[in-house]
Each structure stands twice: as structure tokens, then as C-alpha cells.
Design brief:
The protein contains two helices and nine strands. The protein is of the alpha+beta class and 123 residues long. Strand 3 and strand 4 form a beta hairpin. The longest helix has 14 residues.
């Protein structure tokens, strides 16, 4: 999945993870999970060292439960954040864009002081 560090404003609901998932993103995640034909997958969002700005977003489907995971439900879509990534993602909004200039999941993160041109990493 591709990520960008910006997004247009859309409706989002705050959750225990501190992350907001827009309705558009929730519908897309639900459709992708249905395509996989599994009901045990959740969207995991993590921050890992790397990228041109120091930290890199990771979005992927995961069936695992890790110690300290924070789980939020968005209309049947579970979003999971590990406890180490949670402070970096508090207040972030996950959206899905399907436009000529942007396609894929986008992340608008108020904690990102700087981000790179590719939108995959931040500082």
C-alpha cells in the first residue's frame, strides 16, 4: 500500500488508538479484506525507523495480536497500532485517495514535523 503525508479533509471519527479512519478509507479496507476472503485480518498501522526523513509508515493487513496492541473499530473495520507506534500516530487521519494526482492510502499526521517528497516517511 502506498502512503502520503497529506490528505483532504473528510469525516473521521477519533478512536482509542488515537488514529482517525475516514469513512472512505474504512470502505476501502473492508473491500480489500473481503477480496482476501478472510475475516481474521485487521489493518495494522506502524511506524518504523527508515525512509529519507527518519521514520516510515507501514500499513498492512495482519491477523496477529501483539502484546500492548491498541485496537479501534471503525464500522466493522479493526485498526491496530502497537504501543511503540501509538505516540507517533496520535491524531493522525488515514484516508484513501483515488485521484489522478494521488492514489492509495494517505496519512495526515499532526506529529510529523517534516516529511519527504515521496510521503512515505516523516520526522
Amino acid at each position: 500500500m502506498t502512503t502520503e503525508a497529506h490528505t483532504e479533509s473528510t469525516e473521521a471519527t477519533a478512536a482509542p488508538t488515537g488514529i482517525n479512519l475516514t469513512d472512505v478509507a474504512a470502505v476501502k479496507v473492508k473491500a480489500l479484506i473481503e477480496q482476501e476472503g478472510r475475516d481474521d485480518l485487521r489493518l495494522r498501522i506502524a511506524v518504523q525507523p527508515g525512509g529519507c526523513s527518519g521514520l516510515r509508515y507501514q500499513l498492512f493487513f495482519d491477523e496477529r495480536s501483539l502484546d500492548g496492541d491498541i485496537v479501534s473499530d471503525f464500522d466493522g473495520v479493526e485498526v491496530v497500532v502497537d504501543r511503540m507506534s501509538s505516540p507517533y500516530l496520535a491524531g493522525a487521519t488515514i484516508d484513501f485517495a483515488d485521484r489522478i494526482d494521488a492514489q492509495g492510502f494517505t496519512i495526515d499526521n499532526p506529529n510529523a514535523q517534516n516529511s519527504c517528497a515521496c510521503g512515505d516517511s516523516f520526522h
